[in-house]
Amino acid sequence: MGRPGIGFLLRVGAFAAGIVVVGGFGVSGPGLGDDTKPKAKATDTGDEALKAELLKFNRPTSEDTQRTKLLAFVKDKDRAKKGIALATKLQKAAKGTDKPFNLNGSLVLAKAAHFLKEYSAAEYFYEYSTETAGKLESGEKLLQAYDGLIDLYWDQKKFQDVIDVCERFVELKGPDEVDKVKPFILERLVQAKARQGNTDDALRITESLIQLDEGGWYFTKLKGWVQREAGKLDEAIETYLEVLSKVDSAKRIPREQRDRIKDSVRYALSGLYVDNNEIDKAAKQLEMLIKRDEENPTYQNDLGFILADHDMRLDEAEKLIRNALELDKKRQEKLLEEGKIDEVKETAAYIDSMGWVLFKQKKYKEALPYLEKACADEDEGIHLEIWDHLGDVYQALGQKKNATDAWQKGLTMEDVSKRDIERRKKVIAKLKAAGVEPKVKESPSTEPEKKTPPKKKIID
Fold it and tell me: Other C-beta atoms within 10 Å of 209: how many?
């Protein structure tokens, strides 16, 4: 699988190069959490002990400390979900401003609920955080709360809600931190419009942002992103190449930072070239990236995968993917030592790549355990492409029932890219060729989102 789906529990929101939302949850707000407030009596079991644990999230701490606590809290998912439900009940039951969870606690609970896919609770605590941060005129916390709320709706593909929240943010009258990032919130609005299919409007707003930025590289890159969403692949490629040129000429940006920006552009170009069936050009971009950063597992996995997927240089592809698995293990071990993750486990996308290259080499028995392991990952294995690969291996081994079951399971997964739409059609065709009727409708991800009229135009 070409693109891994790894994410970190505590996200740092970056609206642009040099403008980063960080924070140690250090703003106090109304509610419990300081040492002058009565503490809930802790017991070995029951709601009181859980409540006491939850209330500790109110205390200002460093970001690293808060991350460690949050990782520990969500490790037991069932207990964490119970805690989120309890926190939501307590917060809603409290009258007026005497809420048990202050701004710090609400932001942590929102992030925990988001991670656990308790979306209703996450929305409630993010909204509470936006309101409270607004009253306290805390620019940093406003950014965290709004960024989290936008991500929450994006993850649920509620793009109209993303647009509405972006418009609310742009209309805010607040601290300087808020005004500085408004153009980058407009970027999120543009992306949501594009995902809705309203690419003409998205491009119109993007052109306005480019003019405001005096033709700079950042929003030119956004233009390329929208063109890709619109299916204008040749135009998108030309735009990304233009971005590379603009970044090179941006002498005010330190060279190291320019190189990082160019790496991200080249990575996007590799995907575009794959979409455009220019595999040699995609490989060239990834080879350049590997030469610049030999320790990056993503680049090696992606190059290995696209070579294998197109039956090119299979021995080299296998070596690249094995390198990616080893590099990923080392990277995770370092993150574990730093307390940023709580376990080391193989990345489903890389395991899938390993299984797929073995399949392409007709090593079906060797490929099977890799693909079964990738599909067994409840967090990252829920992808049509991985289950399609598993079905192909079962079919090659003569296990027809297992193959059709895998393909049927894959059809229940949500599409994460335009490539999945075409893959879905192919999987349906495989099932029909096997004499099995697909159990789901043929195009579940192609239905347009029900749109509501926007509150107000941002840029005319």
Answer: 20
List, as one string, the DSSP characters of 376-443: H-TTT---HHHHHHHHHHHHHTT-HHHHHHHHHHHHTSPP-SHHHHHHHHHHHHHHHHTT---SS-S-
Tell me the CA distances in angstroms from 101 to 28, 113, 335, 430, one per residue in order: 10, 14, 30, 52
CA atoms of 174 and 228, how far apart (whole Å): 34
On whether the CB atoms of residues 100 and 109 are closer than 8 A, the answer is: no
At 152-210, the pLDDT tens digits run 999 999 999 999 999 999 999 878 889 999 999 999 999 999 999 999 999 999 999 99
In one letter, which amino acid is 321? Answer: I
Rg (CA), the chain: 24
Task: Identify the three-state secondary structure at position 126.
Answer: helix
- C-alpha to C-alpha distance for 354 and 299, rounded to whole angstroms: 14
DSSP string covering 287-310, please?
A: HHHHHH-TT-HHHHHHHHHHHHHT
Residue identified by tokens 């069936």 is: 277
The runs of H, that is alpha helices, within 157-216 are: 159-170, 176-196, 199-212
d(CA 312, CA 326): 22
CA-CA distance, 146 to 162, in Å (whole number)? 10
Nearest-angstrom CA–CA distance, 327 and 116 = 28
Are the CB atoms for 317 and 304 separated by under 8 Å?
yes
Token pair, residue 60, equals 């200002």
CB 243 within 8 A of CB 269: no
Q: In angstroms, how far apart are the furthest CA atoms of the chain?
A: 70
CB atoms closer than 10 angstroms to residue 241: 13
Instruction: Please write the tens of the pLDDT for every residue from 304-359.
Output: 999 999 999 999 999 999 999 999 999 999 999 988 888 899 999 999 999 999 99
Q: Are 342 and 72 in contact (CB under 8 A)?
A: yes
The single residue listed with the structure tokens 């995968």 is 305
d(CA 159, CA 165): 10
Closest to 187 in 3D by CA, of 211, 163, 161, 171: 163
Please tell me the distance from the alpha carbon of residue 209 to that of residue 223, in angstroms, as a whole number.
10
pTM (predicted TM-score): 0.82
Question: Measuring CA to CA, which residue among 406, 395, 417 is closest to residue 439?
Answer: 406
